[in-house]
Amino acid sequence: MLLPKDFPSSIVFDKITNSFGGIDTVYICVTAKDGTIWNPHILSQIRKISRTFKNAPYVDKVLSITEVKSTSNDKDIMKVSLIVPEDANFSGPAEMDAYEQAQKPMT
């Protein structure tokens, strides 16, 4: 960039580059013709698309609902799991919420 490093726009540009790998970003949105994306078939297709891009040359980072991991504390042990598990069989957001609740440790 031609601007000084401490220039506000340079600072924002650097943050974007560090967070997203640069300004050459491609967004792919998947929608459902009927229902929601929580359909197991649609989730499997999103996972397939995400993994294809993840393994493609020149791709630095893929952010996808099927590839993002969450962390939680289970009796002082860090637990890392996919937000959408490999065997996801959700038919709607309520099932996803139930899965999330089941993953939380009992207190």
Separation, N- and C-terminal Cα atoms: 51 Å
Percentage of helical residues? 25-40%
Q: Note the main sheet.
A: 2 strands, antiparallel
Note poorly predicted spans: none
Work out the strand percent. Answer: 5-15%
Q: Give me the strand/helix succession.
A: HHEEH
Radius of gyration: 18 Å
Helical run tally: 3
Description:
It is a single chain. This protein is an alpha+beta fold. The chain has a domain at about 30-105. Helices cover about 35% and strands about 10% of the residues. It contains 3 helices and 2 strands; from the N terminus they run ααββα. It has helices at about 10-20, 40-55, 95-105; strands spanning about 70-75, 75-80. A two-stranded antiparallel sheet has the order 1-2.
What descriptive keywords fit this protein?
11% strand; two-stranded antiparallel sheet
List strands and helices in order, with pairings.
Elements: H1 8-20, H2 40-54, E1 69-74, E2 77-82, H3 93-103
